[in-house]
Amino acid sequence: MKQEKRKKPIWVKPWGYTEGWLIVLGLFITGLALQLATGGLDRSALAWPVNLVVGIIFTLIIVLGWVFLKRKTPVAWLGSIPAAVTSIAMITFLVLLMGFTLQEDAQNPVWVQKLGLSNMVSSWPFIFGIIFFLTSLGMATVKRLIPFKGRNIGFFLNHAGLYIIIIGGMLGSADLKRYTMHLHEGEIVWYANDRHGHQVQMPLALELISFNMEEYNPKIAVIDPHSGRIIPETISEMFEIDKGNRGTIFGYDVEILEFHKLSGKIGDRYEPVNDFGAAPAAYVRATCEEGESTEGWISSGSFMMPHSLVDLNHVYDFSLAMTIPQASHYSSDVVLYTESGDVEEVRIEVNHPVSAEGWKLYQYSYDDRFGRWSPSTVIEAIRDPWLPFVYSGIYMVLIGSVYLMTLGKAPVKENGEQS
Amino acid sequence: MMPFDPTLFTISAIVCWLIGMTLFLFQDKLTVIKISAHGFFLAGVVVLTVLAVMLWQELGRAPMRTLGETRLWYALFLPLTGYATYIRWNYKWIIYYSGVMAIVFLGVNLAYPDNYDRALMPALQSVWFVPHVIVYIFAYAILAVSALAAIKGLYVNYFQKSRDWSPQLADNLVYLGLGFLTLGLLFGALWGKEAWGHYWTWDPKETWAFLTWIGYLAYVHFRHHQPKKVVVAMWVLALAFVVLLICWFGVNYLPSAANSVHTYS
User: Fold this and answer.
1) What angle do CA A100, A105, A108 make, to 5 degrees?
2) How far is CA A130 from the centre of its chain?
3) Which chain B residue lies closest to A105 (C-alpha atoms)?
4) Which of A188, A264, A355, B44 could form a disulfide with A273 if both were Cys (CB 3.0 to 4.6 A apart)?
5) Interface check A245 vs B, CB under 8 A
């Protein structure tokens, strides 16, 4: 490729970076004016089938525009790298602003919201930037596609794949539905709530049979009983509680003599029980360096039982405590009823959503006041009809990225040896 | 309680690399020195690999959850990438840079010891967890070396006033690194759909991962179009790595990350 050396007036063929920066500036100012005048784009305006029509027309314009007008300076330029680089720079700048601003938050100052900074993805400057970017990406793809050459396959996978992902993701977001269904044991629920709390009728119903949670063993910690805070120096010494575990924490030799994952307090001791509201408890012995030791029950407690500490009052006014156990798994066993009359019992678990009637059902939340004993669960129902389209783009770029790794060329001898 | 002390492994790896790097300085004197240099440098990598495997078994989960754990993998992959680059393309300086950076990262781990912990929140218990993190850390290691190449290029340009420098190494590493970065990003998207319901939510970490990715994308395109404007390209490459570092460590501190699913300590 030849280096342009001569000074060329702006807007004279062939366009380069200068024209690109001016276009970016123009799009940015126009977008900002539109943003201030009308606010951001309302996504629902693009709902099916508007998004399909927009997507097809936009893509047709790019393909036909290239095929018939590629000799025109602006079209030729759109398929060139200066257009790619300047549109990338515009997107980078806007996403950078987004990276520093809390999105979709009403706490932001008014001017931030007015400029669309707190809802960047729906703001006009961003949409103009994406249109510029997609046009350049689309033109570049068609440019290499016609005439088709086998060696361009990697280029095609990366560029067409990215085009599909972005156009599918942007247009498809108008059809994306994310609702929550709040289930209580024994109730059949046919409706969901959208983000604003409005009820929506669902083509399926769920009935919660049980909410299940498994927990990791808690840890032993040294806390200040007045503030309830863990002593910072002991954080790296905390260890997992299990019968027979032993360790040094805060200079004390601590042994776990007994551990019940679920227990109830009977008199002044804890016994294993499996009742609603049961909590973990451990019998511990702490021996200080001088050999003096103290013993007792510790428990993290639950919504029904108070926590229990063992005081280390020998030298310091600190206590041994049990941390609140962390969930290792949680899931909801539900009966799924569909409009077609199917009844099925399914388990909805984190990372293992269940598909039904074009919806995906996710374990979303539970009543954390009750922890493992939560009598209710929240299931998120998501419908994204554009997903297969976007995924086809994702798979194209996945293959394309492997191709990218092979692009490295044989080394040129350089002065790398000297440092 | 850990039945072994990670600190001992960490220190052994650092010592191996220090000896290895010192021996590399004198490798032309004797074949024995040359062989020992390679041996010590690789021994450091082996020691850390053993530590990673033992941690994995002991914790019953992939040790990739905390920042300290990701630093461990980084300190493992970086010298490995540097060594492979040296063997493949004979850039000796890479050995020192990657070794020193790995030591710095392990040093941070020594200064802030992790409280290793078996707990892995349910959302992270996915088949995507390991490939997503490994591919990313590998990309980060390769791109760190490309950033070093860029800094060297800028140094040669501004301080040695020389144009006799080829960005070929930086290019090769960026192709490789960007490939892995893309895989990591897309694995994350596929995982995100299963765990959080959507493949892309502009979570702050995703926003910054996108910025990192598009930064390297800009580099690749600019290099392709303007192969002679090396200095501008090297600036882009160095800045892209700054964005990468913000994405990796800085996001936790940004006010925009208040609701992120990616904040970990």
Assistant:
1) 65
2) 21
3) B256
4) A264
5) yes
Cβ contact A99–B207 (<8 Å): yes
| Plot region of B179 (φ>0 → left; ψ -120 to 50 → alpha; else → beta) | alpha
Domain range for B33: 1-120
B200/B87 same-domain check: no
Asked if B74 and B172 sit in the same domain, the reply is: no
B87 and B104 together in one domain: yes
The tens place of each residue's pLDDT in chain A, 419 residues long, gives: 444 555 778 888 889 999 999 999 999 999 999 999 998 888 889 999 999 999 999 999 999 999 999 999 999 999 999 999 999 999 999 999 999 888 877 778 888 888 888 889 999 999 999 999 999 999 999 999 988 888 899 999 999 999 999 999 999 999 999 999 999 998 999 999 998 999 999 999 999 999 999 999 999 999 998 888 998 888 888 999 999 999 999 889 999 999 999 999 998 899 999 889 999 999 999 998 888 899 999 999 999 999 999 998 766 689 999 999 999 999 999 999 998 889 999 999 999 999 999 999 999 999 988 989 999 999 999 999 999 999 999 999 999 998 998 887 766 554 444 33
Give pTM, 2 decimals: 0.88
Domain count, chain B: 2
Q: Which A residues, 142 through 171, put their C-beta within 8 Å of a C-beta on chain B?
A: 169
Compute the half-sphere exposure of residue A401: CA atoms within 13 Å on the CB side of its CA: 23
Same domain, B74 and B37: yes
| Same domain for B83 and B67 | yes
Residue boundaries of the structural domains of chain A: 17-175+389-405, 178-214+328-383, 217-325
Is residue B258 located within the same domain as residue B138?
yes
Residue A344, both tokens: 């099925």
Q: How far apart are CA B157 and CA B144, in angstroms?
A: 20
B116 with B134, same domain?
no
From B93, B120, B147, give the residue that closes a domain: B120
> In the listed set B120, B137, B160, which residue is the last one of a domain according to the structure?
B120
* CB-CB contact of A288 with A281 (8 Å): no
Residue type, A117: L
Nearest CA in chain A to B126: A351
Domain A178-214+328-383 annotated CATH 3.40.1700.10:
no
Contact B122 A330 (CB under 8 A): yes
Rounded to a whole number of angstroms, the distance from the CA of A107 to the nearest CA of chain B is: 12
- Give the side-chain half-sphere CA count within 13 A for A344: 13
Report the alpha-carbon distance of residue A113 to residue A104 in Å, rounded: 9
The rounded distance, in Å, linking the Cα atoms of A154 and A399 is 8
